[in-house]
Amino acid sequence: MKLRTLARTSATALAAATIALAPVLALAPAAGAAPQVFPFGTTITSNASKNVVSITGVATGSDSDTGTPITQIALTYTAGDQAIEGWQLMWPTLTYGAAGTPAEHNYTYSSDLFSGVVAPHTTVTLKYAYDVTYTDLNPATLSAGIGFYEDYVWSGDLASRITPPPPAPKPFGGIFGS
Questions:
Q1: Strands, sheet with 69-78, edge to edge from the N-terminal-most edge strand
Q2: CATH code for position 74
Q3: Is 84 domain-assigned?
Q4: What range does the record give for the signal peptide (predicted)?
Q5: SS3 for 25?
Q6: Are 53 and 84 spatial neighbours (Cβ–Cβ below 8 Å)?
Q7: What is the count of structural domains for the chain?
Q8: How far apart are CA 86 and CA 105, in angstroms?
């Protein structure tokens, strides 16, 4: 009788584990499927979904409160044949330097979380800011994602694509010699 109870308990536990892990197993990416990496400036189109992601702007400056250098990157997402839900737009990661140091996200100078829907064949542009000076962005890698399976990766010299900010204006007293 104890053997039958043990077997029944084991079978129930195995079935429960299979049901609990089924979504994880179904969503797991294919082994060894590395995303293709493109140079900065390339517009990337997914072959499967026809979604398009492009870097449409890069700006630099500094935090007005702390003086921390900031780099802001604008990404434009264009939905393919299917709509893109807001939750599917993953916050891009930016790494820089030979060691691949992760840049800290700066939420103050970024777009708010997108909670809408990008209808098929329409676009949305979101700005993402990072606490890193633009001169450190050679080399750099930017990885964006839509959902669990679509990765959009750019790598190379991002620093050369950024126009440096103008110098700070001189104080008014300097003009009149006071």
A1: 44-45, 52-62, 69-78, 123-131, 104-106
A2: 2.60.40.10
A3: yes
A4: 1-33
A5: helix
A6: no
A7: 1
A8: 19
